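Mods, move this if it's the wrong board.
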Amino acid sequence: MGTLFKSKYRAADGSVKESPYWSLRYYWNNQLIRETTKTTDYREAQKMLKSREGAVVDHRFPGLRIGKVTFDELATDVIEDYRMNGKKSIARAQRSINHLKKSFAGQPAAEITTHKINVYIRKRQEAKAENSTINRELSALKRMYSLGTRQTPPKVINRPYIPHLKENNVRTGYFEHEEYRRLLEELPDYVKPVFMMGYYTGMRKQEILSLTWEKVNLKEGKITLDAGTTKNDEARVIYLASELYQAIYRLWGSAEKAENRAGEEIPKHPHVFTLRGLRMGHFYDSWDTACEKAGLTGKLFHDLRRTAVRNMIRAGVPERVAMKISGHKTRSVFDRYNIVNEADLKSASEKVMELHRQEQARIAAKTPIVRANVQSAGKVDGSGEPGAGENLSQPLDIIGAADRDRTGTGVAPRGILSPLRLPVPPQRRADGWTNNRRNIQTCQGKSSPENGHTAAVCGHLRFERYSTSLSISCSDRSLNDGMAVFGF
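Not the wrong board. Structure tokens:
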């Protein structure tokens, strides 16, 4: 069982005084632990003692060293973790930690709060650092706390909330084939094969420059990248074709040769891309000069990677195969490299419209069209009565029907006519029309009124006569084959 006590100390005048704060005394792993509560309230000190005793019994007590672990110790652990795992981004992690040290060096890890992290973010933004750069630094800080919680015993119990800033630096640059040709003409000869390799394969710049002849098989026309030599540590096989194969073959022919133990002739220098007998390094100046001459200022070599992905997809290469060639591990990053431009959007729209046209043509070929033609002759005088030359008998011809003859007229309507307005010459109200509408019983193509209106439909037709149009609808329920289509 633990106990509470107030520690005593000797003052400057030599007298012994008692501390106003309560302290805890308990055992952990057979060790006597003394810990101050930093409170003068006896009940609060009791609560803290019971909490410590419960943690010891349940094997949840991490020890008192947690409060003494500093930022610098966590940073050292991160760098060691990078070294042990052979991570290629150790230099980038070191740069991030160097920036973090300016604000957090020497501070206990338990005292680094979200507020202090937000203050750090504002300072970096005032220093014109991009959000993406700040996020990489915050990722290093997250890694510190993540490793600290995994230690035995843990070095960190509570991790602060570390925000993630919105990034808007996703590049969308790529090369059209005409731009590729223009820049190829302006580049120096020693850079052209590197440029071709990036354009056709989408390999990363460092993957290209570190390529050795032992990875190149000219007989089979392929490159084999072993696991561990690529960014995502996955092996890849890339086949060479066209002018790229010819460029690599010329490099082989021009390389200085030497014989190996088997008596085979191999290039003396192990790397494929060399300059003055040494492995080729960066070529920033040559690249910028060629881009300026070709009118492509601002282009990056990494744009070739997006270009290769885009070209493979548009050539019909399955996405899974394209990801295997380019070395993309996640679909989200692959989609980001698959650039879509306005020409792609226009092509997609045209394909959709063509699909609609084909669908309309298919429906038209499957469903016959019923056409109605209204014929009218005569004039309208100004008397309010039909003109002498006006012919009120307006035959309604329905042609193109299919299936069976329902009316004896050689016509088989497709179904019920929805209200349909048919254009007719302007006419005034004539005798025999009441309120501009009248129901007419028709059968066998003959009409009952004396005005002689006829229709090749058997059923009840309602004629609605307006100043400039004629409306027709059919209420015959026996016409159940579907909606008739009228064209004019």
